[in-house]
């Protein structure tokens, strides 16, 4: 009997708590009902709008199409290369750009070379690793163009 009484005392608070839980709430389904007293078209009648004739309306005088002026690009001349620049066997000028001359300077500093032109003349096969299609004479002219333009 004590066991049954103990079980009832243990279960009763749980049953009472589940019935008075604060987290339970009733849910209602809402349905929107249209009110017949309110006008649905807010002051205009659709039938009146359909009766208006579009042909009676005028938008004013017709607008003339404007023709744009043709664009005239400023005339530029192609860059002028002097004719006395030496060229390789493919017809390309043997002149290095400032960026390439700067790259030559960086490689020379990396290998500890102070004067590039004599070093290239004496180490042509090593320089051919960077310009494999050029002859030794063409490589000398390319490096010399950096000295002529004072990039090195």
From TrEMBL:
Name the domain of life this protein comes from.
Answer: Eukaryota
What keywords is this UniProt entry annotated with?
Signal
Name listed for the protein in its UniProt record: aECM cysteine-cradle domain-containing protein
List each copy of the aECM cysteine-cradle domain by range.
Answer: 98-149
Q: What is the taxonomic lineage of the source species? A: Eukaryota, Metazoa, Ecdysozoa, Nematoda, Chromadorea
Q: List the InterPro entries.
A: CCD_aECM (IPR055352)
Question: Known Pfam families for this protein?
Answer: CCD_aECM
**Signal peptide coordinates:** 1-18
């Amino acid at each position: 009997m004590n066991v049954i009484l103990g079980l009832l005392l243990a279960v009763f608070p749980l049953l009472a708590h589940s019935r008075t839980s604060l987290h339970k709430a009733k849910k209602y389904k809402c349905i929107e009902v249209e009110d017949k007293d309110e006008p649905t078209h807010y002051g205009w009648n659709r039938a009146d709008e359909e009766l208006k004739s579009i042909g009676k309306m005028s938008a004013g005088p017709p607008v003339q199409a404007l023709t744009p002026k043709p664009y005239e690009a400023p005339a530029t001349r192609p860059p002028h290369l002097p004719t006395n620049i030496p060229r390789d066997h493919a017809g390309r000028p043997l002149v290095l750009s400032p960026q390439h001359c700067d790259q030559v300077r960086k490689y020379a500093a990396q290998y500890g070379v102070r004067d590039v032109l004599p070093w290239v003349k004496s180490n042509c096969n090593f320089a051919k690793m960077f310009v494999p299609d050029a002859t030794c004479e063409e490589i000398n002219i390319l490096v010399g163009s950096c000295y002529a333009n004072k990039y090195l």
